[in-house]
Amino acid sequence: MGAGHAHRLYRHGHSPVHALPPHTKLTAVFAFVVVVVSTPREAVWAFALYAALLGTVAYAARVPAGFLLKRLLIEIPFVAFAVLMPFVAQGERVEVLGLSLSVNGLWGAWNVLAKGTLGVAASVLLASTTELRELLLGLQRLKLPPLLVQIASFMIRYGDVITDEMRRMRIARESRGFEAKGVRHWGVLAQSAGALFIRSYERGERVHLAMVSRGYAGSMPVIDEVTASRAQWSYALALPVTALVVCVLGWTL
């Protein structure tokens, strides 16, 4: 069970965070996100503390701020959705810079931005300190259904293959003078998408037959058995436990 290469989000390093077993980091990130989502949106200070905790983890992992911020751009669609909320939400209105905005919409936008950004940042830190192969082993160690782990493994293995197939098809179209400029070219693009689907399906059948011929019986062999000591669990769970304390204070104060 291996990806065969490092993904683009991974940043090679030898920090204490890199050295943690993958299933401990997966558990820590999942628990941290649950705590963040459970925090009341009115506790603005709590989200500032969460950001500080993630900053501490990034410092311990030796992940530069620029590397982290660049990869946070993936949440731009959520930002666009949040920006619209104060304009379309109902309820009490308030004037801000001459604009009539919904109070509930403003709180909702803040809720989406704060919790979404923290969740994405935690995920990016996980991806930047854990190789894909280790993530799969961690999921397996956490007893995720084997079929889901296998599907994720094949997606990782053959994602680049399908992307390269798309690139070759694009080059073939352009070499014949095709250039998509409008709606009238959508038919050609739809035919290309259909051809790509058929090729991918046929490739999947060939891969399955090759696996069956080599003794595949519905489950992949476990190559490595990852374990974690009590100290490693304590180190990994320090983030969500500290965040849980902040969350409790956010509800009580």
UniProtKB/TrEMBL annotation:
Its main location: membrane. InterPro entries: ABC/ECF_trnsptr_transmembrane, ECF_CbiQ, ECF_transporter_component. It is a multi-pass membrane protein. Coiled coil: none annotated. Pfam families: CbiQ (PF02361). One of its GO terms (biological process) is cobalt ion transport. Keywords: Cell membrane, Membrane, Transmembrane, Transmembrane helix. GO terms for cellular component: ATP-binding cassette (ABC) transporter complex. The keyword Transmembrane applies. It is found in: Cell membrane. The chain crosses the membrane at residues 43-60, 72-89, 109-127, 233-252. NCBIfam families: ECF_T_CbiQ. PANTHER family: SLL0384 PROTEIN. This is Cobalt ECF transporter T component CbiQ. It comes from Streptomyces poonensis.
